[in-house]
């Protein structure tokens, strides 16, 4: 940093000496043009706060005037003078390219506020109809001490003033200045927009619509949605204005960020509010019913779902994606075709060109069917949707992925062949199989394991893969095709075994499903009936061999499915052999025994596979011969297989004779097994809870919760309720919103099932060493539980939760020692929210604690500096008085709290505190006026 020379140092001291403590701003000498302007404005308007007739006072200050002007002319003169001041400030505060300095000092911001507020009150509110403006009493801003009394004048006389205000404010908002930044998001902008709306509806639509467009261009979609929503509520009685504002509101949704802004606004995401999934129904209702009149329904839905599609592409926004997928689910349940036609179809067409109506087969491989960006985006949408669906959404999962599961499978193999990361694709397919119709998807992939005769193929672009026409397919001879496909068999089988391994890590039952499905394919006539694909049998044989080698221990540990398959196969096999035997004996009555034996086994088994086919069963039978039976069901299946083999030994080929005898020789009578509940496997649940995919983790949490609250005897359960509760609570630290939101839901279910754990959760919430985020989520659990069970909570539970919330809200020293987190503002807000819910839901049960609650609320509103805590305290009063018999509960403190609400509704600097206090007073008067009396 350069050193100051003595001359500059003395000059700086002289300047700083002017700013003595307690010295008024207007007494300081100012040398800049802007500073001198503010000095002049301050002298002109000084003292207006004490005047009852502000316009006359300022008119005299802006004089001298010739002649006598009427009240309207005086008003126009004063407002024009104030508007000219704003124009001069705007000009002198223009932004400079080479400087980031703000030209309007902090002590002059007050002057700007006073100018704009005088203009708004006496130049707009004194003229415009009240139902076209936001209620003035709800617009109290910090340091807004301007008297709000004004004299209403005839609208027709005031129209020239309104035009002046509109033209000047629009000019300021379209400039680049510090003044614009100062008033754009606050006083002035919404008022100018209200004027433009009025003139558009009642005067010249064409002329003034441009002002709406120009003003909207200077604001954000979020701010406009917020303003139009508030204005619409206020102007409901004015049908013309309400209809026009409603159309403006609808048009905001069509902007590129319209849907996202609506979600932000409705769920309070920008204020970091707790996400209330219940509000999604409101958002969906708005989206489905807000089509502008001049737009077709098809174009409207295309726009809305195009925005949703674009947001789903951004996979690194888990909270937004969770909200979007939940919205899609709600819409899907209302109308499946809307979601399929306007969202799913875009993904289907990009990933599976066969579905496209405009697809014309070409021999030109330079024609791109799906470019790099579209392919990547569609895949990202698949990821986002699959990560935020749970087991209850299986219908959506099935419909969405059915047309594209095979292209995804081929995509995984392509990426692997190019040594690219293909595991993300396999993980996606794994999720679809787990959460969707697993039998169907497994069968579909097995049937089409090799991409054979596709008209399109993947290729590498400059940065990412894309899809093009498969011209190589049409030019390759049949012999070369077969050679090429044989080369693919080992590769794709290996990829499928990798997929099976991922499924096995999640649930061994899927491994059994795949093995049985493959065996059924191998030994089924229908599966191998396609004469154009003679090598399918080789595919299934190789796959079975790989599965048995890779998952031998898992298959041996879960033999039920394999035993069922073996029983079915051999019953069909022996039935087929016996039928063929009888037919052949009739034809060969004169043949000797040796010839007869040859005839018996020269044909086919149940599906025409002959002795070579049944010989392929040897590895399966060898595994069965080593099974350790663990249930009565498995014991019965083994016994059935032994009987089937034992009574048909004469028809068993020599190649499998020995292994069949080994199976028959198993002594199952002396095997003792216990009947266990096989519908739930805790080991599988634990695997899935640690799965990298959020949707699979939620699937496991749901399964564990449903098992725990299932009305079975405690003795038959594999896990205790407390174990389940702790496991669910441990998921509150998950970074994925989809997981922790579902964990909250499931903990509330467990508490509903066994209310004895309520105190346990309260204790963890207040004194545990868990992170603040985990505790805040526990707070959401308590709020959710109390909201639905407050009426039946015991006195001890109510006492415990109220005392805990009061202690955290006050952050008393003893509690601080236990958990310093309780001094965190978020914890205090959470505790006050729980306290308010308890007061609202528990009725007369809170009377023993009402003194402490009232003292707490009074203390926060009176002494607390945080506006957030003040708002929460006012909400508690509202929660009490809006509950059943609320005023009887609070009657001893009614007068004290009402006086406090009256005061802060008109004097607090925070707008929301004022609004909440006014709303609470309205609630008292409207709902309980007949019961509520204040003692004098």
TrEMBL record:
Domain RNA polymerase II assembly factor Rtp1 C-terminal: 683-791
GO biological process entries: protein secretion
SUPFAM superfamilies named among the record's database cross-references: ARM repeat
Stretches assigned to the TANGO6 HEAT repeat domain: 253-410
A Pfam family hit: RTP1_C1
Protein family: Belongs to the Tango6 family.
Protein name: Uncharacterized protein
Protein species of origin: Pichia membranifaciens
């Amino acid at each position: 940093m350069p050193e100051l020379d003595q001359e500059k140092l003395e000059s700086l001291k002289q300047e700083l000496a002017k700013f003595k403590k307690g010295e008024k701003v207007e007494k300081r000498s100012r040398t800049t043009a802007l500073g001198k302007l503010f000095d002049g404005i301050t002298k002109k308007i000084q003292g207006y706060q004490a005047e009852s007739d502000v316009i006359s006072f300022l008119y005299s200050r802006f004089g001298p005037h010739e002649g006598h002007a009427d009240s309207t002319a005086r008003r126009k003169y004063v407002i024009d003078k104030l508007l000219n001041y704003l124009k001069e400030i705007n000009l002198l505060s223009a932004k400079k390219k080479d400087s980031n300095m703000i030209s309007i000092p902090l002590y002059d911001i007050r002057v700007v506020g006073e100018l704009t507020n005088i203009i708004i009150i006496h130049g707009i509110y004194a003229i415009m109809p009240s139902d076209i403006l936001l209620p003035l009493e709800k617009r109290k801003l910090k340091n807004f001490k301007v008297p709000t009394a004004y004299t209403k004048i005839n609208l027709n006389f005031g129209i020239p003033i309104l035009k002046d205000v509109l033209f000047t404010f629009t000019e300021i908002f379209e400039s680049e200045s510090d003044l614009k930044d100062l008033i754009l998001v606050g006083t002035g902008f919404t008022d100018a927009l209200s004027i433009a709306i009025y003139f558009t509806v009642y005067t010249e639509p064409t002329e003034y619509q441009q002002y709406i467009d120009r003003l909207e261009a200077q604001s954000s979609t979020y701010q406009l949605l917020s303003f139009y929503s508030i204005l619409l509520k206020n102007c409901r009685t004015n049908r013309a204005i309400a209809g026009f504002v409603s159309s403006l509101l609808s048009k905001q949704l069509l902007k590129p960020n319209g849907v996202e802004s609506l979600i932000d606004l409705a769920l309070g995401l920008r204020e970091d509010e707790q996400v209330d999934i219940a509000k999604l129904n409101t958002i969906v209702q708005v989206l489905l019913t807000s089509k502008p009149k001049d737009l077709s329904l098809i174009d409207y839905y295309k726009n809305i779902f195009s925005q949703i599609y674009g947001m789903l592409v951004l996979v690194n926004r888990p909270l937004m994606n969770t909200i979007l997928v939940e919205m899609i689910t709600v819409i899907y349940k209302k109308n499946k075709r809307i979601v399929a036609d306007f969202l799913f179809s875009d993904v289907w067409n990009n990933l599976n060109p066969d579905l496209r109506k405009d697809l014309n087969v070409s021999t030109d491989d330079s024609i791109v069917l799906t470019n790099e960006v579209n392919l990547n985006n569609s895949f990202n949408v698949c990821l986002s949707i699959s990560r935020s669906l749970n087991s209850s959404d299986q219908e959506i999962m099935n419909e969405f992925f059915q047309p594209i599961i095979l292209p995804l499978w081929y995509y995984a193999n392509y990426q692997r062949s190019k040594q690219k990361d293909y595991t993300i694709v396999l993980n996606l397919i794994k999720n679809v199989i787990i959460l969707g119709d697993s039998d169907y998807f497994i069968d579909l992939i097995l049937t089409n394991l090799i991409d054979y005769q596709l008209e399109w193929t993947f290729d590498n672009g400059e940065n990412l893969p894309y899809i093009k026409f498969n011209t190589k397919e049409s030019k390759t001879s049949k012999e070369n095709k077969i050679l090429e496909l044989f080369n693919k068999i080992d590769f794709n089988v290996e990829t499928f075994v990798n997929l099976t391994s991922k499924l096995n890590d999640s649930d061994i039952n899927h491994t059994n499903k795949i093995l049985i499905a493959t065996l059924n394919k191998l030994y089924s006539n229908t599966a191998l009936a396609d004469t154009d694909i003679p090598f399918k049998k080789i595919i299934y044989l190789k796959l079975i061999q790989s599965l048995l080698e890779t998952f031998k221990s898992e298959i041996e540990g879960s033999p039920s499915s394999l035993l069922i398959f073996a029983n079915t196969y051999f019953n069909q096999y022996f039935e087929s052999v016996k039928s063929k035997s009888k037919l052949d004996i009739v034809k060969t009555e004169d043949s000797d025994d040796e010839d007869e034996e040859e005839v018996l086994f020269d044909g086919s088994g149940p599906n025409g596979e002959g002795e070579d086919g049944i010989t392929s069963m040897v590895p399966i039978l060898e595994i069965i011969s080593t099974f350790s039976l663990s249930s009565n069901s498995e014991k019965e299946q083994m016994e059935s297989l032994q009987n089937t083999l034992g009574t048909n030994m004469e028809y068993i080929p020599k190649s499998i004779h020995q292994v069949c005898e080994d199976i028959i020789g198993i002594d199952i009578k002396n095997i003792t097994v216990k009947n266990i509940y096989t519908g739930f496997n805790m080991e599988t649940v634990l695997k899935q809870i640690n799965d990298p995919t959020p949707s699979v983790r939620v699937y496991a949490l749901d399964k564990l919760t449903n098992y725990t609250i299932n009305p079975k005897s405690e003795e038959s359960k594999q896990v205790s309720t407390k174990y389940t509760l702790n496991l669910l609570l441990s998921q509150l630290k998950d970074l994925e919103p989809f997981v922790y939101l579902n964990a909250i839901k499931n903990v509330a279910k467990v508490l509903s099932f066994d209310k004895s754990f309520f105190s346990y959760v309260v204790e963890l919430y207040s004194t545990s060493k868990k992170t603040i985020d985990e505790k805040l989520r526990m707070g959401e659990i308590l709020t959710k539980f109390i909201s639905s069970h407050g009426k039946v909570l015991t006195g001890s539970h109510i006492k415990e939760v109220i005392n805990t919330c009061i202690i955290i809200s006050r952050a008393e020293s003893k509690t601080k020692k236990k958990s310093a987190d309780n001094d965190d503002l978020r914890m205090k807000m959470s505790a006050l929210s729980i306290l308010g819910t308890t007061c609202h839901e528990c009725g007369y049960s809170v009377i023993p604690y009402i003194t402490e609650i009232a003292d707490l609320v009074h203390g926060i509103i009176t002494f607390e500096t945080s506006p957030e805590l003040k708002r929460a305290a006012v909400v508690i009063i509202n929660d009490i008085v809006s509950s059943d018999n609320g005023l009887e509960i609070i009657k001893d403190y009614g007068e004290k709290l009402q006086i406090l609400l009256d005061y802060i509704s008109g004097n607090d600097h925070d707008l929301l505190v004022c609004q909440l206090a006014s709303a609470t007073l309205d609630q008292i008067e409207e709902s309980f006026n007949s019961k509520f009396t204040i003692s004098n």
